[in-house]
Request: fold
Amino acid sequence: MPTENSPLIVADRLRIASASGATLVNNISFTLGRERVALVGESGSGKSLTARSLMGLLSPSLRLNAQTLNVVGEDALALSEGQWAPLRGGQLAMVMQDPKYALNPMRTIGWQVAEPLKLHASLSRAEIKEKVCEMLDAVGLPQPSQLMSRYPHQLSGGMGQRVMLAIALIADPQLLIADEPTSALDHAMRDQVLALIRRMVEQRNMGLLLISHDLQQVAEHCERVMVMYQGEILDRLPAADLPRATHPYTRTLWSCRPSLATKGQPLPVLDRAALEAHREHH
Amino acid sequence: MTQNLTELESVPPRGRQRPRVTSLAIGGTLVAVLVLAALLAPLLAPFDPNAQLMTARLLPPSSAHWLGTDGFGRDLLSRVIYGARPTLLLVALILVLTIPVGMLIGICAGYLGGWTERVLMRITDIFLSLPNLVIALALVAMLGPGLMNGALALALTSWPPFARQARAETLALRRSDYLAAARMQGINGLRLMFGHILPLCMPGAVVRAALSLGGIILSAAGLGFLGMGVQPPTAEWGSMVAEGSKVIFDQWWVAAAPGGAILFASLAFNLTGDGLRDRLDTRHAN
Amino acid sequence: MNIIELNDLSVSHRLGYETRTVVHDVSLTVAAGSCFGLVGPSGCGKSSLLWALAGLNPHWQGKMTLAGHQARPGSAFTGQLRQDVQMVFQDPYASLHPRHRLRRTLAEPLKLLKKKDINPRIDAGFRHAGLDPALADRYPHQLSGGQRQRVAIVRALLLEPKILLLDEPTSALDMSVQAEILNLLNRLKQEDKLTMVLVSHDPQVIDHMCDRAVHMDRGYIVS
Reply:
């Protein structure tokens, strides 16, 4: 069990390869304490694979090895499936991209939010019900007692994502991994949901690993940023330094967002040839 | 996006030490054995299947007759091998008749909608509710026994599931972006149905066909058993089981040999169907 | 000159026996060569309006004039109108037929219209959009999301339309790929003198791309 000060994730030379030998994540190293860190990159950069390896959810056809991989104080490389089960939901939790696919369509909201409690805590039915109501309220959902008997298809995208967050946080985990939690949502909802995640993580003194492809979005809500490209971490910097980033990839990702200010001009895009050349030298 | 992740996960691992033996591999091999037996029967069968030798009646399995002989002194092994022919012919005929008709009706119903859909689906429902052996018997009583009539009878009651599946898939596809894009480019009607929708319904139909072949073989054997299929003295597994059932307690091999062949064929097609479904579904999923 | 004119346009969806109106009494005009934006949250009706403009949803009432053709409610677009209005769809993974090679997908409508030099046209279209023409012989699943969206754009432009409708063309793409696609669209708009109608839930994309835009909410235009 990690103490207040020990890091929640210690990854040293983490490597993920496909069954045919292609390297998907190439010897990355990082640590995560009780802080909000963003892992940013394009599709195919390996960020989702990294996240899944931290929860033992990698596909069995992929090969994982590392010098060290400690997650909430446990050696993630040595855990069996049975040993992972009490950790997932209880010590660490994940929120995924699309509530449409991640929520069970055949079960009520109340049942799904209560499930982690049933698995990781021993409480009476009444206590569970109370906690579920509290949690639904804490994530900003209206009329929690009525919502408990509804089904996922009756919720909008933003509400569904809040339910996912409630499921993730109800058993009081230490670490939250959010894999592109707002990509399936409307623009207007994105900031709200991210702000909610940030608030809950701060209140509970948890660690947050936020995965995204949108640098500007995570900059507002995270303290540190790691930038991944093709399986490697190219740049690490505090979020506050992003506008002054020096690495060409980070600079481009930061400034490629369209806005009124960029109207009429072409947006900066990645010059992949130059990027490869830069990587050769470092 | 996580799309890349599912692409990675659905690719079967290659470069392993031993190739995995899949249902498809086993089923495919068994089907190949069946087809070879049917094609090469004259070369494989040790005796003429119709040669009667009354002094060698009901002999148990021995080195001369591997599966024994039947009530007319005919070698059972040869009859079983030759029996693969009417079975496979029947299966092929039924497939040729049911799949195109079923898919045509299903796709038209799903695409055109409205009254066309309602009428076609009600016709499908009517045929679906017909019990297949009873109808087969009725048809054979009208038209006379024989392979073609047996095939026709079974085909008449086998096409509805294909129609329903094709319609369900067409309905789901109608809302897809790529069909909308094709319509935007001026592609519609028959071209859309057969060039765009049909290729997407094919994998489902192939799997369904392979899986239902096991049952069709049993129905065909049933027809033969009732004397309604291929007529004697032609070797056919179903009628052979009927003959063998008369002496089953004392000379069990006369019924067991063709019975075993029916089991073998059913198993072969079921395994192939299972394997096909696994292969086609994972690729289909993306 | 206005290339799109809508007067009191209402669009509805038919589900079985029910009809639900999702867009109410919309009137607007779009000048030729400009980019017009439709912004709003999910369910506001912007995509439904776009699909009606595309001729994919025949259940509409009111007056719709596109590129000089008067569209008739209840019937699909035919003839020159069908060519003049083309659309780029949202999900690059879903808008190309998974079982057809790209060349076949792009060539089919040209063959129907009995155009000549189909293969050179396709190759030229690919180059125009920054793609290697050799990719045309591949299947959609062999391309990345950004490449597929470029192919979708080429497909729309091969029929030489006057109006290009874009239904959240970059919502399913990474930020960096989105920048590339938006740059491409702007370049094509200038070079081919296209009129574009862009639907998005991201106001910043609209700000960057559009000359004029309206907000929609629950089927009505609100600003």
Summary: The mean pLDDT of chain A is 88.
